[in-house]
Amino acid sequence: MGTSHTKETIEYKASNQNEKNIELLAEMCASWGYGSTKSQVVSQLIKNLTDLGYNVNCTFEPMNGGNGEFYVYHVKDSEKKIVYSNNKKLHESKNAVIGGKINSSNVKEIVNKIIA
């Protein structure tokens, strides 16, 4: 069977401090490309935020029994706001960036939604 994944929270330190902290929640299908999806969040989204001087606290939460779901939320004051989704029907009306993956063509738009 496939590898089982557990919920984990990782803190990423800014490369040049601006004394600001950001909290993210990344919900991802536990079986459909979990490792590569997590890698997109770290190498694209979190790297951009830390390069801008933000400390990022990110919780990676596997979704068991999923069908490739991939959602990223900005968590502020215990409220989560969707900023990225691969499910247009579910999140387009909530003004999320919609895509198949986080990459150089959409990461700036996602970052702008988070730091706005």
Helicity level, as a percent range?
25-40%
Secondary structure tally: strands: 6
Question: Spans of 5+ residues with little confidence (pLDDT < 50)?
Answer: none
Distance between the termini: 42 Å
Tally of helical segments: 3
Plain-language structure description:
The protein has one domain: Glutaredoxin (3-Layer(aba) Sandwich). It is built from 3 helices and 6 strands, in the order E-E-H-E-E-E-H-E-H. The mean pLDDT is 92. The protein has helices spanning 34-51, 88-91, 107-115; strands spanning 8-12, 20-29, 54-63, 70-76, 79-85, 97-98. A hairpin with a 2-residue loop joins strand 4 and strand 5. Helix 1 crosses helix 3. By secondary structure, it is α/β, with parallel strands linked by helices.
